[in-house]
From TrEMBL:
Organism: Mycolicibacterium moriokaense
Protein's recorded name: Nitroreductase family deazaflavin-dependent oxidoreductase
GO cellular component assignments: plasma membrane
Catalytic activity line of the entry: oxidized coenzyme F420-(gamma-L-Glu)(n) + a quinol + H(+) = reduced coenzyme F420-(gamma-L-Glu)(n) + a quinone
Family: Belongs to the F420H(2)-dependent quinone reductase family.
Highest taxon listed in the record's lineage: Bacteria
Single GO MF annotation: coenzyme F420 binding
Length: 166
C-alpha cells in the first residue's frame, strides 16, 4: 500500500467515525443520504449501517457503508479504499451466518452472499456507478474487491451507541 493510500484510509476512518455517530445519534434520520461529491461520489449517495461481532475480539462493530439496492437486496462493497487487505467488517461477516443492517430508520437481520461470475460483474458495474471511486480502488490493489449482497429478514431495533459497548 502506498503512503497516499494509507493517508486516505486514515482520513476515511475519521470521516467514518463522525458519520457513524451522526447516524446512531439520530436513529437514522441523518446520515442515510450524504453529499460525497468532494470524494468523487454523488450529491445523493445512500449509506447503511452494518453491525457485526468481531471474529477475534467478540466486540460489536458498527460501520457506515455506501449501498445500492438490487431486486430487494442491499449491495455493499468491501473496498477499504483500495488497500491490499480486506476490511475487518468483511472478514467478520464471512465468519458469521448473518449481519445486522440499518437503512435510515429501519433495521433488519440479514443473510448475506457474494455474487459470482456474470452476476458479480453486473453488480460491480452498478456499484461503480453508485460510487465511481470504486474503479480506482480496484486499480490500486491486486486483491479482488468483494461485493456482498444482504437479504433483509426479520426487523430488529435500530442501532444505538450503546451497541458499541457490547
Amino acid at each position: 500500500m502506498s503512503d497516499e493510500s494509507a493517508a486516505a484510509i486514515r482520513q476515511e476512518r475519521d470521516w467514518t467515525t463522525h458519520h457513524r455517530e451522526m447516524y446512531l445519534r439520530s436513529g437514522g434520520t441523518a446520515g442515510h443520504v450524504m453529499d460525497i461529491r468532494d470524494v468523487g461520489g454523488h450529491r445523493f449517495t445512500t449509506h447503511c449501517l452494518i453491525r457485526v461481532k468481531g471474529r477475534k475480539s467478540g466486540r460489536t462493530q458498527i460501520v457506515p457503508l455506501i449501498y445500492g439496492s438490487i431486486g430487494g437486496e442491499i449491495v455493499i462493497v468491501a473496498s477499504r479504499a483500495g488497500a491490499d487487505q480486506h476490511p475487518e467488517w468483511y472478514l467478520n461477516i464471512r465468519a458469521g451466518d448473518h449481519v445486522d443492517v440499518q437503512v435510515a430508520t429501519q433495521a433488519f437481520r440479514a443473510s448475506w452472499r457474494e455474487p459470482e461470475g456474470e452476476e458479480r460483474h453486473r453488480i460491480w458495474d452498478y456499484m461503480a456507478r453508485v460510487f465511481p471511486p470504486y474503479l480506482n480502488y480496484q486499480k490500486a490493489t491486486t486483491r479482488h474487491i468483494p461485493v456482498v449482497m444482504l437479504t433483509p429478514g426479520e426487523s430488529i431495533d435500530v442501532f444505538t451507541e450503546a451497541d458499541l459497548q457490547s
